[in-house]
Design brief:
The complex is a heterodimer of chains A (about 260) and B (about 170). With about 260 residues, chain A is an alpha+beta fold. Chain A has helices at about 10-15, 20-30, 35-60, 70-75, 85-100, 105-110, 115-130, 145-155, 240-255, and strands at about 140, 170-180, 180-190, 195-205, 210-215, 220-225, 230-235. The N and C termini of chain A lie far apart (about 65 Å). Chain B is about 75% helix and about 0% strand. Chain B starts with a helix and ends with a helix. The chains are: A alpha+beta (about 260), B mainly alpha (about 170). Chain A: It comes from Teichococcus coralli.
């Protein structure tokens, strides 16, 4: 006998066959002397058996076709249908492109400077990488040290990765993104519902610290700011009211960790 | 990919059973499992290599189900779920055992979601206490106390139902 007192957990362990043989013998001996508890344990055993019996038929039903794993895998990489507005815009631009499209050139020309350019690059990166089910990031979060040293090396600045886990967003990993201003670091996050965020950061030596500004484009929201010689843009397909606090958190964590700081 | 199929496929019947027991609606449960499988397939490379596939998949399905139940609760009394539970084929064959099972599942549905999940994962799906804790993202101690409360509450509910049935018979 171990002399350990019998606990409620032991009684459930007995019901669920989770005790080792020695403990099981002790609990059974104790129950022999406590008929009321023994009756309760017996009721739990019957309850367990009845639940299993009641639900067993569901598990022995044939699996319906929509849950056929091979089919799910086949369906995994279909071209995502364009939202109709984007599709209509594409058709319009193609139609206009040949003839009088030149006067649209300003509208279609990408922003080339400042935070507007960074916000646009971040939104473009989100549109390309966030829907990617196969390889959304180049280097996964599991290799975070490698990720940090690689990006620090390529950007020529020490890089820190913001931690958004308190808000339910896990780091998936990152990649380098080319921009006309040089390489930018992209970090991707997701939450339990699969909602993804992209943070794009690059050095902007000529840029003064600039407060956060929000933008919307085609279902994407972004917040963009500059601090300490670097620009940051956080993009997600979530409400601006949900994204803004996350951007604040990134800014808070990056404050004092200037990208200007050499490696 | 074959590795993934080999690990996921055998779990599908259990995942369906767990989802159906929680939602009590056949098509809603299957939709949910489908959603869960799609997530699992697309995030397969992100799962922790040391974690087991079963807890990971149950956690995905559990989180989807819990969200759905919370949404349903916000929308107020959910008669459709109750009705669907009775109509759901496979849950309630019309025999005496079937009636008993129906009473039991109805009493189970009366438990708070957190107790119901633990009861199902441990009693029906044979997850260890540690696995159930991983699925639910809570400490083992919490699993144990929910299990104890859930079992006792279900026992009292069934005793009450049996008592009521007895009264009806002698009246």
């Amino acid at each position: 006998m171990s002399g350990r007192p019998i606990t409620e957990d032991d009684l459930h362990g007995l019901v669920d066959l989770a005790l080792d043989a020695a403990r099981q013998a002790e609990v059974e001996a104790w129950l022999a002397a406590h008929p009321a508890e023994a009756a309760r344990v017996e009721a739990y055993r019957r309850q367990r058996a009845a639940l299993r019996e009641a639900l067993a038929p569901v598990a022995s039903e044939p699996v319906p076709p929509e849950l056929n794993l091979a089919r799910l895998l086949e369906r995994r990489w279909p071209a995502r249908p364009l939202p109709w507005r984007a599709a209509a815009a594409a058709v319009l631009l193609l139609g206009l492109g040949g003839a009088g499209g030149w006067w649209l050139r300003d509208a279609a020309r990408p922003e080339t400077r400042g935070l507007a350019a960074l916000a646009q690059q971040a939104a473009d990166s989100y549109a390309v990488y966030a829907p990617d089910r196969q390889r959304p990031v180049e280097l996964r979060a599991a290799s975070q040290a490698e990720l940090v040293s690689w990006m620090s090396d390529r950007l020529g600045r020490r890089i820190t990765v913001p931690d958004l886990s308190a808000a339910g967003y896990r780091l998936m990993g990152g990649r380098l993104v080319p921009t006309p201003q040089g390489p930018a670091a992209l970090f991707m996050y997701d939450d339990d519902r699969g909602s993804r965020l992209v943070l794009l950061a690059r050095t902007m030596p000529a840029q003064d610290d600039t407060p956060m500004s929000g933008r919307s484009r085609g279902g994407m929201e972004s917040f963009t700011w500059a601090a300490g010689g670097a620009g940051y843009s956080l993009v997600g397909a979530i409400a601006p009211t949900a994204l803004h606090p996350l951007a604040d958190e990134v800014r808070r964590q990056m404050a004092g960790r200037s990208l200007r700081e050499p490696v | 990919m074959t590795d993934m199929a080999r690990l996921i496929e055998p779990l599908i019947p259990s995942l369906r059973r767990y989802a159906r027991a929680l939602l009590r609606d056949r098509s809603a449960a299957d939709d949910l499992v489908q959603d869960g499988l799609e997530r699992a397939v697309s995030r397969w490379h992100q799962r922790r290599q040391d974690g087991d596939a079963r807890s990971w998949l149950f956690a995905i399905v559990h989180n989807l189900a819990a969200n759905r139940l919370r949404q349903a609760a916000r929308r107020g009394p959910h008669l459709p779920l109750e009705a669907a539970g009775e109509a759901a084929p496979g849950l309630a064959p019309a025999q005496e055992a079937g009636l008993r099972h129906r009473d039991l599942l109805r009493a189970l549905a009366g438990l708070p979601e957190e107790q119901r999940s633990v009861l199902l994962l441990v009693s029906v799906e044979d997850l260890s206490y540690a696995e159930a804790a991983r699925v639910l993202g809570v400490p083992i101690g919490t699993v144990m106390s929910r299990l104890a409360r859930g079992r006792e509450r279900l026992r009292l509910a069934m005793d009450g139902a049996a008592g009521a049935a007895h009264l009806r018979r002698i009246k």
